[in-house]
Specification:
single chain, mainly alpha
Length: about 350
Amino acid sequence: MDVLQKEHERLSKKGNLSKSIDDVQKTIDLLTKARDSITSNSASASITLAKLQNPVKQSFDAITDDLKEIYKVLGNYGKALDKKFKDKPLPTTEYDALSSHPALINRAIAMHLLREGQFSVASTFLTEATAHPPRAEPTPGSPNPYDTLEQDLGIDSLRSEALRKQFANMYHILHELKTEHNLLPAIEWARANSGLLEARGSNLEFELGKLQFVWLFMASDSRGHQLTTSEGKYRALQYARQEFGVFQGRYLREIQQLGAAMAFCTNLQQSPYRRIFHNDSAWDEVASSFTREFCSLLGLSADSPLYIAATAGAIALPTLLKLQTIMKEKRTEWTTQNELPVNY
């Protein structure tokens, strides 16, 4: 794996086209300049073209050298991949449980694209999938619900503008959280859905408020500008008085810890509250919690089912390949989906 990692790093450094693009642009600039010169003075065409030969040749040679280096590192990376991940045939079986569920597969793909924020791709995929629906292939011994599956799974709901707006809003809030360290959009969303979150037993709303308190306490304003220790302490105290009253019933101890930390504002690293105020993963944790709760309120799991299914399938492939080999050696067949064809 170390060899593959080294080749990947080499490909990242040398396997880009930026230098080639620069050389191509220089060639274009030379030709454009020559064209303009000939246009303005046609009598100088022969001299201009003669002067152009060597620079153009040098430019093409430079482009060729650039591409040779790219092809070299790309070839080495491909060889390293082939050496590490040897080509193996995929398991084959006549009992494909998903062949009679093309609409189920299409819905999983479309939902995955929506969850990843690829809205235009999801829209195109849904348009083409419904305009040219795949033909279901019945699986022996398995019911074929294809006739009503699209309606049952709510394929039409994936085309709704409301669902796309929900995911667009989720990605906007996540961008503010992860990139800008701006908690306010997430806090507003949690406040608007406070009743639903509380019914689920979620602590997201308080965790967002707690992180906002820490953010202010650590001497930064809403735009990330550094403040003095006293200014940060005053802002955090103001925020706590304004926002934490509604949380006293469930989170009194946590609120007391935040308040007590003010006594150690000049030496938080050595205080009992160091983990609260110096937690490098706090932003990632609250972003994951937000994603999980947001998807839950939409009736979805936090992780993409397509990603989970693909991951589980990839993990199971070695076992299935070994099973297929045993079946060939013992000349057995898979006659039912409820049991393995061999003792394994």
